[in-house]
């Protein structure tokens, strides 16, 4: 099936590339790939990325890049469809290089028109970041970061961002795969930096965030200890740099989220640096470290992960989101298998 599988992928890739190629002349009558067609091709490409067919990962990287382009095309098609449905005449550039767009004056056009597809692609791209093969991990990381950076924070509900953060923090590659571990920890820091200001503004998100930050602190400590065995390794240096930056940002004027929560996050991460004598580059919030918390302060309890009082109800969705994230990669792989035996 190997040669046939490559033939099928080449056909998909050529179809996608033909949709992205600039029009050669005015009035080009090139057939347009429909939304239904794009959806079918996306499902097939997800199978290639996950190696669903006989665990064949040989086409994972090209399939990932092709899927990135296909998603861009799908977003543009959905925008055109929404405009036509509303009687608008906004001209959407089908050769635009970004995967998310803004059309002024039209609030009906979403930057993430298909949230389910967005999440599936995010999980797929992250699976490549975790690859033990360093070049594959680097390419996956570049693609993942482009994809996330092109997504507006308010295009997705808080629950989706929290699920993605849970996925990243719980699905870290082992320390022995140093390049993948560095890349995935860097991704965790960047996605948290991108989302925490908004997420921390709602106390409904604090239990999820607290769990994520506490797990991140554990990962940080492990990276620092393992990265300092013998000579200082790139893992140690990368972790020190990213955690120092994140810790400083959380207590800076630029941080627009909840200030108390930001201080707790900063102190929690800084404590891991101090355990190995590497906290010299961090800015400590003196008031937060010297002022005792008021007795029974619910804010402090939420931030430290302390057991809530009897009058406090734990959000049942927290456990659900952790479970969703913990099984996301497995569920996605199973979902893409379907008729794998009948596939390429």
Distance separating the two termini? 7 Å
Q: Number of DSSP strands?
A: 0
Helix content: 55-70%
Mean pLDDT: 79
Main beta sheet: strand number and arrangement?
Answer: none
Q: What global shape is seen?
A: globular
**Count of the domains:** 2
**Helix segment tally:** 13
SSE order in H/E notation? Answer: HHHHHHHHHHHHH
Cα Rg = 22 Å
Strand content: under 5%
Low-pLDDT residue spans: 89-110, 285-314, 333-343
The computed structural class is mainly alpha
Can you give a write-up of this model?
- This protein has 344 residues and is mainly alpha-helical.
- It is globular and about 65 Å long.
- The protein has helices at 2-20, 35-50, 60-85, 115-129, 134-149, 158-170, 178-199, 206-226, 234-250, 259-275, 286-290, 298-304, 316-337.
- The protein starts with a helix and ends in a 7-residue tail after the last helix.
- It folds into two domains: 1-114, no CATH class; 157-330.
- It is built from 13 helices and no strands.
- Residues 280-344 are annotated as: Disordered.
- Residues 297-314 have a biased composition (Polar residues).
SSE layout:
Elements: H1 2-20, H2 35-50, H3 60-85, H4 115-129, H5 134-149, H6 158-170, H7 178-199, H8 206-226, H9 234-250, H10 259-275, H11 286-290, H12 298-304, H13 316-337
